[in-house]
Amino acid sequence: MTLASMAGTIEALGAAWSWVIAGLVLAGAEILVPGMFLIWLGLAALATGLATAALPVPWQGQTLLFAALAVALVGLATRLHRRGGPPGTGLNRADRGLIGREGLLEEPIVQGSGRIRFDDTLWRVSGPDLPAGGRVRVVGLAGTVLRVEAV
């Protein structure tokens, strides 16, 4: 199939289908080049295609609608990403759920370093020297080391 025949096929399908196809191609490209960017452009193109199918919109209006939707969706995605994403995105980040949690030291804190067990994981901790079995509360993180204070 030549480029001219592909252009003729897309023209014959109409503007609405062209936007839908472009949206699907962009969404599919997100799989090949992951980065959470092309999916938003694909959604904007799909929405433009649906709007074009429902209402007679000239090509200038279609282009402006696509641009506005693309900017809005990319802006929304950027805001969600900066906030840490939608609820539940702490998946596989157990350390974030430990702040404020209390427990007993598995190993004493000597010269500022010790260990504590939460659930099935043994964590390194830093804090004031305390004996094994001492009760502590997690007050922060320093990489993968939990900062604790005596309770």
Into which percentage range does the β-strand content fall? 15-25%
Overall SS class: alpha+beta
What low-confidence regions span 5 or more consecutive residues with pLDDT below 50? none
Give the rounded overall mean pLDDT.
Answer: 86
Shape: rod-shaped
Major sheet size, sense and barrel closure: 5 strands, mixed, barrel
Portion in helices:
40-55%
Note the run of SSEs as H and E: HHHHEEEEE
Tell me the total number of β-strands. 5
Q: What is the C-alpha radius of gyration, as a whole number of Å? A: 27 Å
* Structure annotation, total helices: 4
Your description of this structure?
- The chain has 151 residues and is of the alpha+beta class.
- Helix content is 46%, strand content 23%.
- The protein has 4 helices and 5 strands.
- It has a 5-stranded mixed barrel with strand order 1-2-3-5-4.
- The protein is rod-shaped and about 80 Å long.
Features:
alpha+beta, five-stranded mixed beta barrel, about 45% helix
Short description, anyone?
The protein has helices spanning 3-13, 15-32, 38-54, 59-82; strands spanning 102-110, 113-118, 121-126, 135-142, 145-150. The protein is an alpha+beta fold and 151 residues long.
How would the blueprint of this fold be written?
Layout: H1 3-13, H2 15-32, H3 38-54, H4 59-82, E1 102-110, E2 113-118, E3 121-126, E4 135-142, E5 145-150
Parallel strand pairs: 3-5
Antiparallel strand pairs: 1-2, 1-4, 2-3, 4-5
